[in-house]
UniProtKB/TrEMBL annotation:
Residues 394-410, 441-460 have a biased composition (Polar residues). GO terms for biological process: microtubule cytoskeleton organization. Gene3D superfamilies: ATP-grasp fold, B domain (3.30.470.20). This is Tubulin--tyrosine ligase-like protein 9. Residues 387-479 are annotated as: Disordered. GO terms for molecular function: ATP binding; tubulin binding; tubulin-glutamic acid ligase activity. It comes from Capitella teleta. GO terms for cellular component: ciliary basal body. It holds the Pfam family TTL. Keywords: ATP-binding, Ligase, Nucleotide-binding.
Length: 519
């Protein structure tokens, strides 16, 4: 199996995990353009990357899924969900205004608050809409202090956070969405608690080391290496450490985390209707949650491509097993490697594009992928070998010894037809008006042209004008089956018969929200 990272160097921890599992890294000097099984990028993919996606390949981003990962889009969609389903349900997101569009509304809201309680001062936090890692964030109490030169989001600041020995913290929750249609959500049991490195003080709102918990900021604090009271050196705990602490002070950690699961699901419901159907894609989100002194969780933001760097030992403890479990959920098989190995890649001299062989992965003669979805109730799958302690390296290596071109030396192509012939072929194709995936129909007399030949050297591939492959044609018809738990990832949705039933077609958000309220 072959992995591909970004368009250059990717996260070192991710690379290490793949190599530890016996994968081979994509090398543009050794491999053809489509010769990979998983492509992981920190940035978004182009439309053409989705169009050319093959049945054995995966991308780590769903297309057009920014409704919750952009700060301004999240604020907009939270308002929409509050209006449709009630502010009592979507009450976990602080009041927010998108600037400059909502500036007048924000000023009016501040005026009403002042009229209601002239002696109370509210604190607000301003975040640039398109920046991350705490860049450009500042706090203010008076409108005269609000200055911005780009699109920004102003949120009501949570002024009563739960503190540990005076230090503010938030939670990084890892959420995996292997499918939006139907919606399937995994949440990682482990995660990070990220601390400010100076004690919380509302009287000093300019001290970012006290009010922001981003590691990218706090690692530059002079107190970062100091052994702080109860928190210790650095600025991170694992969620297991935090839950242990909560139990020590007689707080029901299970109730808090069941509320956090509810926040995650209600947030994802805002994205489902806006997400196109996409196969062979998955998304890893980083949810930032803050718990206040009343043990209520608040959604701060949702991170696209959460950081996979390892700044400290806590990062390694959490992120490395999480990546192993994520790859297990994707359930790559030896068949994925065989499908990619069996593709004879021929480059046209004019364009340099790879022309894949003409067969349809839906064909009945193509061995079906391992079935992944058997319907509810979901059975716990037996743990794979890699979950056994110290067995990461026990799997046989899948490094390829020869290129696809070397494996099919007898494959030839006919001489390219003239432009006039090409035009005639295109006209005949348009006249036939075949329905989608017509070649997969066993009743079609020409469907045999699309079958895999047991001997690739025995046929000559007819030439046709290269065109983008529609990725849906590479998706197995049988929907996948997901286990209720894989490593430390647990299946958060669907969680019962009702949520499974009402998510199989178009998600009935009203019904599934009602089910979530019962938890």
């Amino acid at each position: 199996l072959i992995f591909r990272l970004n368009d250059g160097p990717g996260p070192e921890l991710l690379r290490h995990v793949f190599l530890e599992r016996g994968w081979q890294e994509f090398d543009e000097d050794e491999h053809d353009e489509q010769d990979w099984n998983l492509w992981w990028r920190s940035s978004r993919f182009r439309n053409s990357d989705y169009e050319q996606l093959q049945g054995w390949q995966r991308l780590n981003h769903h297309p057009k899924c920014t409704a919750i990962t952009k700060k301004d889009a999240l604020a907009r969609n939270m308002k929409r969900m509050k209006a449709v389903h009630g502010a009592g349900i979507y009450n976990f997101s602080p009041m927010a205004f998108n600037l400059p569009n909502d500036y007048t509304k924000f000023v009016g809201h501040c005026s009403k608050l002042k009229e209601k309680d002239p002696y109370r001062q509210f604190t607000w936090i301003c975040k640039p809409a398109d920046l991350s890692r705490g860049r450009g964030i500042f706090l203010f109490k008076d409108l005269s202090e609000l200055q911005y030169d780009c699109n920004a989001v102003v949120q009501q600041y949570i002024s009563n956070p739960l503190l540990i020995s005076g230090y503010k913290f938030d939670l990084r929750i890892y959420v995996l969405v292997p499918s939006f249609h139907p919606l399937v959500v995994y949440i990682y049991d482990e995660g990070l608690a990220r601390f400010g490195t100076e004690k919380f003080d509302l009287g000093d709102i300019g001290n970012m080391f006290a009010h922001l918990t981003n590691t990218s900021i706090n690692k530059h604090s002079p107190n970062y290496i100091v052994d702080k009271e109860r928190v210790g050196p650095g600025c991170k705990w694992t969620l297991a450490q935090l839950r242990s602490y909560l139990r020590q002070i007689n707080v029901d950690d299970r109730l808090i985390f069941s509320r956090i699961v509810n926040v995650v699901l209600l947030t994802l419901f805002t994205q489902v209707d806006l997400a196109p159907k996409s196969y062979n894609c998955f998304e890893l989100y980083g949810f930032d949650i803050m718990v206040d002194e009343n043990f209520k969780p608040w959604l701060l933001e949702v991170n696209f491509s959460p950081s996979l760097t390892s700044d400290c030992q806590v990062d390694l403890i959490v992120k490395k097993p999480m990546l192993h479990d994520l790859i297990d959920i994707l359930q790559f098989t030896e068949q994925d490697k065989q499908l990619s190995d069996n593709q004879p890649a021929h480059l046209t001299r004019s364009t340099g594009r790879t022309i894949p062989p003409r067969y349809n992965i839906f064909d009945k003669n193509v061995p079906p992928r391992k079935k992944l979805y058997a319907g509810y109730p979901l059975k716990v799958a037996s743990a794979p070998d890699r979950l056994k302690k110290d067995h990461y390296g026990s799997k046989s290596s899948s490094i390829r010894s020869e290129s696809p071109a070397d494996s099919t030396p007898g494959l030839t192509r006919r001489k390219l037809p003239s432009e006039s012939n090409i035009h005639d072929v295109e006209k005949r194709r348009r006249k036939k008006k075949k329905p989608p995936h017509w070649s997969a129909n066993p009743l079609n007399k020409r469907s045999s042209l699309n079958q895999i030949s047991p001997n690739p050297q025995s046929y000559t591939k007819p030439w046709e004008r290269p065109r983008p492959r529609v990725r849906h044609s590479g998706h197995p018809r049988a929907p996948p089956v997901y286990s209720s738990r894989v490593g430390d990832f647990f299946l958060a949705f669907p969680f019962n018969d009702v949520t499974k039933k009402y998510s199989e077609g178009k998600l009935d958000v009203k019904v599934v929200i009602q089910e979530c309220q019962k938890l």
